[in-house]
Amino acid sequence: MRARCQSGGLGHNMGSSVMDLQQEILFSLEKDGVVISNEFGESIKESHQKIVGAIKSLESLGNVVNVKQNALKTWECTEEGTGVATEGSHEARLFNSLPPEGRSVADIKDNFPNSNFALGAAMKNKWLKKEGEKVVPAMTSIEDQVQKYLQAITAGAADSVPDNVKVEYKKRKLIREVEMTVFEVTKGNEFTTSIVKQEGELTKEMIESGQWKKTTFKPFNFKSKGRVDQRSGYLHPLMQLRSEFRQIFLEMGFSEMPTNNFVESAFWNFDALFQPQQHPARDAHDTFYVAEPGKTINVPEDYLQKVKKTHSVGGYGSIGYQYDWSRDEAHKNLLRTHTTAVSARMLYKLAQDGFQPVKFFSIDRVFRNETLDATHLAEFNQIEGVVADYNLSIKNLMGLIKGFFEKIGITKLRFKPAYNPYTEPSMEIFSYHEGLQKWVEVGNSGMFRPEMLRPMGIPENVTVAAWGLSLERPAMIMYGINNIRELVGPRVKMELILDNPVCTIDK
Amino acid sequence: MPTVSVNRDALFKALGKTYSDEEFDELCFQYGLEVDDIVDEPEKGITYKIEVGANRYDLLCIEGIARSLSVYLGKESQPNYRVLPPKEPENYKLIVKPSTSQVRPYVVGAVLRNIKFTQAVYDSFIDLQDKLHQNLARKRTLVAIGTHDLDTIIGPFIYDARPPQDISFVPLNQTQAYRADKLLEMYSCDSHLKEYVPIIKDKPVYPVITDQKGVVLSLPPIINGNHSKITLNTRNVFIECTATDRYKAQIVLDTLVCMFSGYCDQPYTAESVQVEYPDGEKVQYPKLQYRQQVASVSYCNILAGVSEKAEDIAKMLTSMSLSADPDGQDKVVVKVPPTRYDVLHECDIAEDFAVAYGFDRLAADMQMPPTNTIGQEFELNYLSDKLRLLMSQNNYTEVATFSLYSKMDMGERMRVNLDNESWVKVANPKTTECEAVRISLLPGLMKTLAANKHISLPLKLFEVADVVFRDSCPTTTRGTGARNERHLCAINYNVKAGIEIVQGLLDNIMIALKVPFTPDNSAQGYYLEGKDHPSYFPGFCGNVIVNDVAVGQIGLIHPEVITNFNLNNPAAAFEINIEKVLEITNFGH
């Protein structure tokens, strides 16, 4: 066991002189009933700083003394002023340096520091007089009032110096006004003049010898910060939020899709979703195509034929897009633009294995050939939920989305009709943002088109509802980040991770 | 999604009602439009920038938006678009020459008779062509529109494709004639036209439409001739659309005709143009066909989650510009107008019904689906998360870096020769930072260190994420030719960073995975085997072997790699393929 009774704090490392000072203060207090820090310092010729240290240590003992702080305006000498206080004013120094026969003005001007001022002031005081080219003493002895005043100020007796003199000296930059904190010490309830040595730590020896029973411990300073022994390990905030969303899906009974395939064929990414080959999203401006391996190895041929037919001439009640569908285009490899490519694979597999109702989810990386800026990256995490069941309705999709968003504390939702090539109906999800006082888009949703589902072999009366959102967007809002590159990527500053060790969602 | 700029006052005039911004925004929300921005300019007045669904070509201009919203609000009924016989049947022809098949094989045409342009109508007409070119026509690659003052030209018109040297004409808004190849050279520097130049530039022949006298109407898909230019005084308009996609040309033409025939003396009509292909095929355009689509009442009701009668469904569909009639109790017959090429299937009808019913009304009665299922994590993610937690318990901090790297960061800076690696190469990155899909997590950790030199040492970082390799195996790559591999990478960067520190961490991981340390190279356990790797310091690098299979490296980072990332302290790291480790140890089972 290791008990730490003191972790730093004032007075801890002070030597015996502090102990002596504390004792002196206590004696003085017993005699006078009050000790004023600056006056006490002057009286015993000790620096104010040390006196304050001793007072603080006494204060830390508990109720031995009461301490009150007062702000005090006072004066102190500048560097030049301190020189005058110790060595005399310039004019006095000049007077004292003169031999009885005097010196030539030119000689003084060349060799005496501050000669102009010194000459002027000494003449004005009638200490010197002019005799031809020379200056000679006019008195045998002088009284250096300037030095006396400045000595008084150095000694903290500024009150004895007339105010007009202080104003003049301030102008001459000999003194300046300062504010100091003065401590007024009075006796406390447990006042005593006998203080005992306090121990900073409970030690192994004290425990073994039982010495701790007789030891007085320095009180623990509850106001100081703790000390970090070794930096802990942390999880990245975005990855923590990812875990929260995974948890929500699992609580709702969703199964996680295997999304660990970043390279996808255009077939699964677009064609299988009934996204026509001339669709702008398939443009190289938006999608990262893969140069190597540029072509996919294989796609289930019978399924491909059905997809081709549905696109080019229609089927399953659809007139299709009426264009020449190209196998080459479908066989191009790309970096998947959405995890819906994986949903398509899963739904196809589900149909092959024999359909039964399912709920799927995934949270994983998708790629867009974006021009990068503060809110757009070339890759981000897409959160996607998919439910396939017989005769699902828009109301079911809305209910599902509401249930999901309630889990992250978003309760006010609206749905706007929208367009998406592979869902019909499609709805944008809006939530009311209290801060912005308006509805903001938080996600996208829809029911997969029959032209997507039927070629897979999904039964006719099965509908598949899906919704999606990005992981980064809510993370940016949660952590108050405006530039996405401060959240993800290799240039993220560690402070983000260290300062956000735990991620919780306001549910 | 395309955005259409609409003059607010003109729109409200067409709708016969003035709205506040909030009221109009709400109307748009209900209908599935979105007011993206409101701009107030001194000369133009207030403009609404309205975002339109990418499949609704009929909403790409103020005429279409006003008409659809008026029908939705019940203020007018959907017009009946009609094709009229041509006034000059012999002249309103487009004769297609065989050479066009080498470059742009299809053409369609129509005539708008006695149209009245105002400046606003003219601007809108030009703007819609531009919108159609950008969206449906995929930047003129699929379809290109040319519109002409019919009274300046004489049919029949010839659609030909000729060598560029043989084509010469005065292009739109120019005063002198240019040869087609010179013209394209000039336009390759034109900010507006340069993006279309490559569509035909290197073709042996260029498409060209001329009139009976050889006047060049247009050089599709680049520019029209100046001769047949449309002005505010033009009364009769000849529209031609050349295409590589015949069906889309039909859509573009129908859309233009439907939107602007409203300004003809005989509203919503167009005169037909006959296209004559070299094989003798003769086709009349515009089509303006009304397609019948039957929608089942129960299907619509199930999809929306309501129970409306056939008559009511028909009424609601009609308000969505889909004229419909009930056919008994179970069916609704919809006449899909030539403005609604987005309707492909019954589901499109059902959606319009749901929109007309109102999403807010549906939301008022939303229900959780009855689907009861038991959730299941993807095992690899489940185990990855366990390892992430373990790493943080070992005082390593997680980073989240990118999957895409520059070749420089992944290759040269790591001292790795990418020619020897099966890495996935991105074909069309916009920046060098997205040239390659990563084969290792280590460069991301090195870059993170470089960005955090202000943090007191030691810096102990880790990442668990996927890297990607080319692979010819169809099953492991799911048919694509590339597969993900889940890696764990950890690095210790410090004034002194011996391998033993990260090795201790590796030991802890192996304990967690129940793999014993077997320095005697046993087939059941793990050990290290000295083997150099370009990113590590020679002699201080080894393979991590689990059950006799190499699963990764451990070692002291090569000093050149350290300095390549502008770092100056030693670092030790390991990177292992955890997917492989889990597989060969059968962990979790």
TrEMBL record, chain A:
Enzyme Commission identifier(s): 6.1.1.20
What gene name does this entry carry? FARSA-L
Q: Which CDD domains match?
A: PheRS_alpha_core
Q: What protein family is recorded? A: Belongs to the class-II aminoacyl-tRNA synthetase family. Phe-tRNA synthetase alpha subunit type 2 subfamily.
**InterPro entries found in the cross-reference section:** aa-tRNA-synth_II, aa-tRNA-synth_II/BPL/LPL, Phe-tRNA-synth_IIc_asu, Phenylalanyl-tRNA_Synthase, PheRS_DBD1, PheRS_DBD2, PheRS_DBD3
Q: Which GO terms describe its biological process?
A: phenylalanyl-tRNA aminoacylation
Boundaries of each Aminoacyl-transfer RNA synthetases class-II family profile domain copy? 241-490
Q: Which UniProt keywords apply?
A: Aminoacyl-tRNA synthetase, ATP-binding, Cytoplasm, Ligase, Magnesium, Metal-binding, Nucleotide-binding, Protein biosynthesis
Any Pfam family: tRNA-synt_2d
Tell me a GO cellular component. Answer: cytosol
**What's the cofactor?**
Mg(2+)
Protein name, UniProt field: phenylalanine--tRNA ligase
Named from the GO MF annotations, one term is:
metal ion binding
Q: Where in the cell is it found?
A: Cytoplasm
State the source organism's domain of life.
Answer: Eukaryota
**Do the record's keywords include Magnesium?**
yes
User: Do you know which PANTHER family this protein is assigned to?
Assistant: PHENYLALANINE--TRNA LIGASE ALPHA SUBUNIT (PTHR11538:SF40), PHENYLALANYL-TRNA SYNTHETASE (PTHR11538)
